[in-house]
């Protein structure tokens, strides 16, 4: 295990964003998240899993039948277990644009006008740590960097 940044003289900005499960865990695989809002922010994002996951009805409303089947498959993987209420990864948000119908597979969400795709790269798993999320962005203090450890 190694800490994320050991010797950086100035720490880059780090923001936390919370997803309800299973979407937090899917972020570790799919690199595209959806939101109802756009953002100009580009940079590091702590991927956090909310304490309360979507129930089956809510999930179906977001995913539709086709994407729901894919989500149900991924939820069987071990990496999707016991993530609620924890920070689970870190990534770089590099782009944001309105969702297109062709984005459904990358997002695991049924296309709807008004959704935005948030594109991530360099997604890395971290040692899970308790994290109380909130709606929208949360700027994290520089001291928070010391708590983040990459999984080997």
Provide a short characterization of the protein structure.
The protein has 152 residues and is α+β, with helices and mostly antiparallel strands. It has helices at residues 23-30, 56-74, 104-107; strands at 2-3, 14-19, 32-35, 43-49, 86-98, 116-130, 138-139, 149-150. The chain has a 6-stranded mixed β-sheet with strand order 3-6-5-4-2-7, with helices on one face. A two-stranded antiparallel ribbon has the order 1-8.
Task: Tell me about this structure.
The chain is of the alpha+beta class. Helices cover 20% and strands 34% of the residues. It is built from three helices and eight strands. Strands 3-6-5-4-2-7 form a six-stranded mixed sheet, with helices on one face. It has a two-stranded antiparallel sheet with strand order 1-8. The mean pLDDT is 89.
Uncertain residue segments: none
Compute the average pLDDT.
89
Global Rg: 15 Å
The share of residues in helices is: 10-25%
Which structural class should the secondary elements be placed in? alpha+beta
Distance between the amino and carboxyl termini: 5 Å
Our estimate of the beta-strand percent is 25-35%
Task: Tell me the major beta sheet.
Answer: 6 strands, mixed
Q: What is the H-and-E element order? A: EEHEEHEHEEE
Number of strands: 8
Principal-axes shape call: globular
Walk across the major sheet and give the strand order.
Answer: 3-6-5-4-2-7
Number of alpha- plus pi-helical segments:
3
């Amino acid at each position: 295990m190694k800490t994320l940044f050991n010797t950086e003289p100035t720490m880059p900005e780090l923001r936390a964003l919370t997803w309800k499960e299973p979407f937090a865990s899917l972020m570790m695989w799919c690199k595209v998240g959806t939101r109802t809002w756009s953002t100009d922010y580009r940079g590091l994002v702590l991927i956090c899993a909310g304490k309360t996951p979507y129930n089956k009805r809510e999930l179906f409303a977001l995913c539709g039948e086709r994407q729901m089947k894919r989500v149900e498959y991924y939820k069987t993987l071990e990496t999707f277990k016991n993530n609620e209420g924890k920070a689970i990864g870190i990534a770089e948000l590099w782009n944001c644009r309105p969702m297109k119908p062709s984005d459904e597979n990358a997002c695991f969400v049924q296309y709807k006008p008004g959704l935005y795709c948030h594109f991530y790269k360099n997604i890395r798993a971290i040692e899970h740590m308790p994290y109380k999320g909130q709606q929208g962005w949360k700027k994290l203090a520089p001291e928070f960097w010391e708590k983040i450890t990459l999984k080997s």
